[in-house]
Amino acid sequence: MRIDWLKPVLPIYKHVVDGAESLQAFGRPLSVASVEGLILCKLLADRPQDRADIAALVHTHKGEINLEFVEQEWATVAESDAPQLLALRAMIKKTDTAG
After folding, report:
1. Residue 5 pLDDT more than 80?
2. pLDDT digit string (tens) for 37-80?
3. How many domains are contained in the chain?
4. Is 9 exposed, middle or buried (0-12, 13-18, 19+ CB in 10 A)?
5. What confidence category does residue 6 fall into, taking pLDDT thresholds of 50, 70 and 90?
6. From what superkingdom does this record's organism come (predicted)?
7. CA atoms of 75 and 82, how far apart (whole Å)
8. Contacts of 91 (CB under 8 A, 6+ apart)
9. What's the rounded Cα separation, in Å, for the pair 59 and 86?
């Protein structure tokens, strides 16, 4: 099983970790980031696989993503017209208006 470890360095990462849900896995506590938290981390990394992962998250969580939270956190590290955020908004709009 592949696991991504995250040690918060930037405030945005700390907010993702602080907002994570606590679960049990194999008898051990595990923190799992919210969909918004995952999207933020992937927006920051902005690799081709991250873009594909964001598209999958947007599709899977249609109508459930708190874009206001994502935009608020994003504003602490980049401009609101950054290409990553513009692409996310377009994905959400397209998914929300599709059938």
Report:
1. no
2. 999 999 999 999 999 999 999 999 999 999 999 999 999 999 99
3. 1
4. exposed
5. low
6. Bacteria
7. 10
8. 54, 55, 58
9. 16
Domain assignment present for residue 6? The answer is: no
> With a threshold of 0.90, does the pTM exceed it?
no
Q: Which domain holds residue 41?
A: 34-97
Task: For residue 57, give both structure tokens.
Answer: 């998250």
C-alpha closest to that of 85 among 74, 93, 96, 77: 74
Pairwise CA distance, residues 68 & 57, whole Å: 16
d(CA 23, CA 83): 34
Q: What is d(CA 43, CA 53) in angstroms, rounded to the nearest whole number?
A: 10
Long-range contacts, stretch 63-72, CB < 8 angstroms, 24+ apart: 63/96, 64/35, 65/35, 65/36, 65/39, 65/92, 66/36, 67/92, 69/36, 70/36, 70/39, 70/40, 70/43
Is 40 inside any structural domain? yes
Q: Does 83 fall in a domain?
A: yes
| 18 belongs to a structural domain | no
